[in-house]
Amino acid sequence: MRKYLSAILFAFVTTSLSAQIKFTIVGKIAADTIKEISIQYNGEKSVIPVLKNGTFSFEGDIKSDCSATIIFNEDETDVLWLDSGKIEMTIEQLAEAGTSSKKVFKITSVKGPKISESYFNISKVRDELYKSFDNVSDTVVRNSPVYNRLFLMIDQFVTEHPKLNLSIEFIRLFGLNFREKEVLLNKLDKGSEMKDIEVLASDIERERKLAPGNVIDDFTMAKSDGSVFQLSKVQSQYVLLEFWSSWCAPCRAMRPRLSGMYKKYHEKGLEIVGVSVDERKTDWIKAIEKDNVQWIEVSDLKGFKNSFAYTTYKINAIPYWILIDKNRKVIQSGIWSVPEQTLQKLMP
């Protein structure tokens, strides 16, 4: 009898460990020019045919709730959060932010599992925040009604779903400060097998270390011309450390704005120091030349996870920037838009 019970228990455990969550996506795309889209999740990519009437469907399995990238073409993507059940979605072409003519594909509605709907709805508020407060100070953003609404929505979701991967996603990547992240981290079920909970703790450690008023460590690193750079020897009144990589599209997209800032504020006392997390020098130098960079560029060429940025400052997402004064005291840091409003106040 004991032998049979052991066999049953083993079968139950094996089945539980290998249990998969099944999901179905049913959607409609409002365009007659696209014949297929792709979905990428958990390292796998699949093509989804689009019928003549614009409808499409897809079925899959996941081990736990996770994000999926919906790919419309090489330059246009959007994110859907997957969970058990039927997910209904609509895709439309909308005017790209900041332009009146160019249109891009975006997910415009999601119905189905509560988790999938929550990701869509909270993402809309986050996007509204980014769009409304581009180029303004961090203080203005965090004192806005939109930011307050975003935090309350995330707080409620995390409280109701302390075991979900999406809770960590909201805390980590939706623009909260380290104090708010710490409050929400304490609401998570740390005994569960959640992804990235250690990464979240690392985020909080970094942001506490780089809080305004703290003095950052001095460092030396090789410049792009082969000479040695030392942070403490920079004579400028203010220094903007920009952490980036040649393979980081958002980093490269931010370069024109940085170039404008450099031209405007360099003679007033601003130095920009680009700190690359590249691994291959050829890629790094090629990107510098292509972007026509005029400021200081340094790198230890150790790759992202072994870089000075990652090991010392716990920077695990780029682009990231730190604005310091001549005494290496932090004025501001973040992953949002570069601090143009702050620079205007410091160097009118």
CATH class (first level) name of the largest domain: Alpha Beta
Instruction: Count helical runs.
Output: 11
Question: Judging from the principal axes of the Cα atoms, what is the shape?
Answer: globular
The share of residues in helices is 25-40%
Into which percentage range does the β-strand content fall?
25-35%
* Secondary structure tally: strands: 15
Beginning-to-end CA distance, first to last residue: 84 Å
Runs in which pLDDT lies below 50 for 5 or more consecutive residues are 1-18
How big is the Rg?
Answer: 23 Å
Query: What is the CATH-assigned architecture of the largest domain?
Result: 3-Layer(aba) Sandwich
CATH superfamily of the largest domain: Glutaredoxin
Assembly state here?
A: single chain
CATH topology annotation of the largest domain: Glutaredoxin
Keywords: Cytochrome c-type biogenesis, Disulfide bond, Redox-active center, Signal
Domain Thioredoxin: 210-348
Protein name: AhpC/TSA family protein
GO biological process, one term: cytochrome complex assembly
Can I get a quick summary?
The chain is built from eleven helices and 15 strands.
Description:
By secondary structure, this protein is α+β, with helices and mostly antiparallel strands. The chain folds into 3 domains: 21-112, Immunoglobulin-like (Sandwich); 138-209; 220-346, Glutaredoxin. It has 11 helices and 15 strands. It has helices at 2-17, 114-132, 138-142, 145-160, 165-173, 178-185, 197-209, 249-265, 281-290, 308-313, 340-346, and strands spanning 21-29, 36-41, 44-49, 55-62, 66-71, 77-82, 85-95, 103-111, 220-223, 228-230, 238-244, 270-276, 296-299, 320-325, 330-334. The strands form 3 sheets. A 7-stranded mixed sheet has the order 10-9-13-12-11-14-15, covered by helices on one side. A 4-stranded mixed sheet has the order 4-1-7-8. A 4-stranded antiparallel sheet has the order 3-2-5-6. Helix 2 (114-132) packs antiparallel against helix 4 and helix 6 packs antiparallel against helix 7 (197-209). The longest helix is centred in the middle third of the chain and has 19 residues, at 114-132. The radius of gyration is 23 Å and the shape is globular. It holds the Pfam family AhpC-TSA. Residues 1-19 form the signal peptide. Keywords: Cytochrome c-type biogenesis, Disulfide bond, Redox-active center, Signal.
